[in-house]
Design goal:
The protein is an all-alpha fold. The protein is built from 5 helices and no strands. It has one domain. Helix 2 runs antiparallel to helix 3. The N and C termini lie far apart (about 105 Å).
Length: about 210
């Protein structure tokens, strides 16, 4: 009887330890999943800030005489394309293809904005416009913040994905619905913001026909 009770106590002790490991591991997965979702929401916030800046930017640029309409139209169309990508702002997309679609739309907008800023170099009056200069500064800050938040998002996803493939999470994560979350794809010069460069020196005005 004594040996039976000792054996029972050992089994109970092992079960308690296993339960503690499970609870601890599960709670860690929940924290890491929530951290990734929170960082995704922050990424959404900075991208939304850029979208909010564009109408004022477009309105200001439209006021410049003879500004290239095709460049402006490209920005407007790219912004509209971003709006057509439906994606949950509060949780990381489970589908990597959906995140890739979102990233492509945002990349097209970044490229359109970069081209617009290159064209602006040929319009000294526009570059001297105080409102436009303020929008440029805000846009530059937003682009830098986008790069930072994307990096933090990938870090949070890496921590989560590592947890579901290592002990103890590997034993129960997938069974409980915890699956890999997609990353933002690394792009050339991904460590820096998209190339929106502002040169406030005043070049010679373009020759009139």
């Amino acid at each position: 009887m004594k040996n039976f009770l000792i054996g029972l106590a050992v089994v109970a002790g092992v079960l308690v330890i296993l339960l503690a490991v499970f609870v601890s591991g599960y709670n860690r997965l929940v924290r890491l999943a929530k951290a990734a979702d929170a960082q995704w929401a922050q990424v959404q916030n900075v991208y939304q800030r850029r979208l909010d800046l564009i109408p004022n930017l477009v309105q200001t640029v439209q006021g410049a005489a003879n500004f290239e309409k095709s460049t402006l139209t490209a920005v407007i169309d790219a912004r509209a394309s971003v709006g057509r990508v439906t994606i949950d702002a509060n949780s990381v997309p489970a589908d990597a293809a959906k995140l890739a679609e979102f990233e492509r739309a945002q990349g097209q907008l970044s490229s359109a904005l970069s081209r617009l800023m290159v064209v602006v170099e040929r319009y000294p009056d526009l570059k001297a416009n105080e409102n436009f200069r303020d929008l440029q500064a805000q846009l530059e800050g937003t682009e830098n913040r986008i790069a930072v938040e994307r990096g933090r998002f990938n870090d949070a996803v890496r921590d989560y994905n590592t947890a579901i493939h290592t002990l103890p999470g590997v034993f129960f994560a997938h069974a409980m619905g915890y699956t890999d979350k997609p990353y933002f794809a690394a792009a050339p010069a991904a460590a820096t913001a998209p190339a929106v460069r502002f040169d406030f020196s005043t070049p010679s005005a373009p020759a009139k026909p």
